[in-house]
Recover the amino acids of this structure.
C-alpha cells in the first residue's frame, strides 16, 4: 500500500538540491552545537520542512537582524528568488529525500574551514565618538550590544548632514554578522558617530584596509 507520505509531486530532492542549499546558507548556525537546532541531515530537516518554507518565504531566515532601508546595507546573505522557489517547491512536493548516493561528498567543508574575511582596522563606538581622522568605512557590526536592544547608528558630518548607518532590531547575539555597505562611506574628520539609545552598548566600524 502506498501512504500519502510516498506520493511526491516534485523532482527536487533533499539529496540532490536541498542538502547543498541548506549546507551553504543555513548550516553555519543550524548544526549540532551551533546557535540553533541542526539541519544537517534529512532526518533532522524533514520535521522542519513546513517551517523552513515559511521562514524563507517570509525572508526571516537567514536572519538579517536589522531594519531594511535604514543605511545603505547590502544583504549579502539573503537567498535568491530561485533558491526560495527551490525550497518552496521541495516542501510543497512532499519534501522527498531522493537517493542518498547523491548527497554532497564533503558537506560543510566550506563552512568549517572558512576563516573570517580579512577586514581592516575597527573603531569601537560606545554611545558616540567624533572622528579625529577621515576614514573610509566598509561595514559595521555589533561589538557588545545588550541582547534584545534596538539601536540606530547615524553619522553626522561636520556640515550638519546626518546619514543613517544601521538600525539593529532586537539584537540577538546568535545572529551576529558584519553589515557591509553597498559602497564605502567616506567620513571626514570631525564626523560624529552616534548610537540611539547611547546606553545600548558598543558597535564597531570596519575601516577599509
Ligand atoms: C545567523 C544564524 C542563522 C542562519 C544563517 C540561519 N538561521 Fe535559522 N535560526 C537561527 C536561530 C538563532 C533560530 C532560533 C529562533 C530565533 O531566535 O528566531 C533560528 C530558527 C529557525 C527556524 C525555526 C523558526 C520557528 O521558530 O519556527 C527555522 C525553520 C529556520 N531557522 C530555518 C533556517 C533556514 C532554512 C536557514 C537557511 C536558509 C536558516 N535558518 C539560516 C539562526 C540562523
Amino acid at each position: 500500500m502506498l501512504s500519502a507520505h510516498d506520493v511526491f509531486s516534485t523532482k527536487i530532492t533533499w539529496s540532490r538540491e536541498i542538502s547543498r542549499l541548506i549546507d551553504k546558507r543555513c548550516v553555519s548556525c543550524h548544526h549540532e552545537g551551533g546557535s540553533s537546532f541542526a539541519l544537517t541531515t534529512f532526518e533532522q530537516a524533514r520535521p522542519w520542512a513546513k517551517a523552513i518554507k515559511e521562514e524563507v518565504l517570509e525572508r526571516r531566515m537567514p536572519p538579517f537582524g536589522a531594519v531594511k532601508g535604514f543605511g545603505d546595507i547590502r544583504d549579502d546573505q539573503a537567498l535568491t528568488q530561485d533558491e526560495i522557489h527551490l525550497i518552496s517547491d521541495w516542501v510543497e512536493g512532499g519534501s522527498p529525500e531522493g537517493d542518498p548516493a547523491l548527497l554532497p561528498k564533503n558537506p560543510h567543508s566550506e563552512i568549517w574551514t572558512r576563516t573570517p574575511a580579512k577586514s581592516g582596522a575597527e573603531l569601537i563606538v560606545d554611545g558616540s565618538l567624533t572622528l579625529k581622522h577621515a576614514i573610509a568605512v566598509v561595514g559595521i557590526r555589533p561589538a557588545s550590544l545588550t541582547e534584545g536592544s534596538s539601536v540606530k547608528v547615524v553619522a553626522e558630518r561636520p556640515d550638519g548632514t546626518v546619514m543613517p548607518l544601521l538600525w539593529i532590531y532586537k539584537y540577538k547575539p546568535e545572529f551576529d554578522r558584519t553589515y557591509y555597505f553597498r559602497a564605502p562611506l567616506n567620513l571626514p574628520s570631525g564626523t560624529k558617530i552616534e548610537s540611539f539609545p547611547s546606553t545600548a552598548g558598543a558597535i564597531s566600524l570596519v575601516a577599509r584596509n
About this structure: The mean pLDDT is 90. The pocket of heme C is lined by residues 25-26, 28-30, 35-36, 48, 51-52, 55-56, 61-63, 79, 172, 174-175 (CB under 6 Å).
